[in-house]
Specification:
By secondary structure, the protein is an alpha+beta fold. The chain has a domain of about 55 residues: Roll (Nucleotide Exchange Factor Grpe, Chain A, domain 2). It has 3 helices and 6 strands; from the N terminus they run αααββββββ. The strands form 2 sheets. The protein has a 3-stranded antiparallel beta sheet. Strands 2-6-3 form a 3-stranded mixed beta sheet, with no helix packed on it. Strand 4 and strand 5 form a beta hairpin. The longest helix has about 80 residues. The chain is elongated. It starts with a helix and ends with a strand.
Length: about 200
């Protein structure tokens, strides 16, 4: 009987010890509020990491967009430059061709001024006159205009003075004589008019 009571007391003590240990463990684990900040911090870190990735992605997208816009602007400028150079090239070729025509026009003008008064010579001169008018018509079709000079105030952008003359009939600086006509296409001067100016 004594042994049986001793065993019962030991078992009871063991149960109390286990219960006590369990209580301690439960006390350690029971207060879950101590774990909440750790879980919350982990979520914050994840959110922060996602925000960082999003920021980097947006930064790269902005960089790519900026590069694309720059490339597009450069191509547009290149296209405009090529078109401008082509237009200038065409204008330059046109001026060079027209300058050859102008030399012929000058010769024809001089020949017409010296036309003789005999009948045969007049017929010859009339033929030259027709050629001159035809040439003049071609130049007008190409947009070539004669620069007005005689009686106009001298303009160094349009006229080239080779002499100054005293004249009572003209104000100082006025073109009194055109030695060689000048021509233009729009605002572009093909060649200035060579003139004499009153002083």
């Amino acid at each position: 009987m004594t042994q049986s009571k001793a065993e019962e007391e030991k078992a009871s003590n063991d149960e109390e010890t286990i219960s006590s240990e369990e209580a301690v463990d439960l006390e350690k684990l029971g207060d879950t509020k101590e774990l909440e900040p750790i879980v919350e911090l982990t979520l914050e870190e994840q959110v922060a990491a996602l925000e960082q990735e999003l920021q980097e992605a947006n930064s790269k997208a902005d960089e790519y967009l900026d590069g694309w816009l720059r490339a597009r602007a450069e191509f547009s400028n290149y296209k405009k430059r090529i078109e401008r150079e082509q237009a200038e090239g065409r204008a330059r070729v046109t001026r060079e061709i027209i300058c050859h025509y102008l030399g012929v026009m000058d010769d024809l003008e001089r020949a017409l001024k010296e036309r003789p008064n005999v009948v045969d010579a007049n017929a010859w001169a009339n033929g030259i006159d027709l050629i001159y008018k035809k040439m003049e018509s071609i130049l007008e079709t190409e947009g070539v205009e004669e620069i007005q000079a005689e009686g106009e105030l001298f303009d160094p952008n349009l006229h080239e003075a080779i002499d100054q003359l005293e004249s009572e009939d003209h104000d100082e600086g006025t073109v009194v004589e055109v030695v060689q006509k000048g021509y233009r296409i729009g605002e572009r001067i093909i060649r200035p008019a060579i003139v004499r100016v009153a002083m």
